[in-house]
Amino acid sequence: MKEDYKEIVNKLEEHIELEEKSIREYSKVLSKIESKVLKEFLRGILIDSIAHRELLKAIINVLNKVSKEKFVIEAEKIPMKREDIAEIVKTLKEHIKTEERTVRDLLSIAEKVEIYPLRETLRTLFEDEVRHHTVLKNIIRVFEEYSERA
Question: What's the pTM value of the predicted model, to 2 decimals?
Answer without folding.
Answer: 0.67
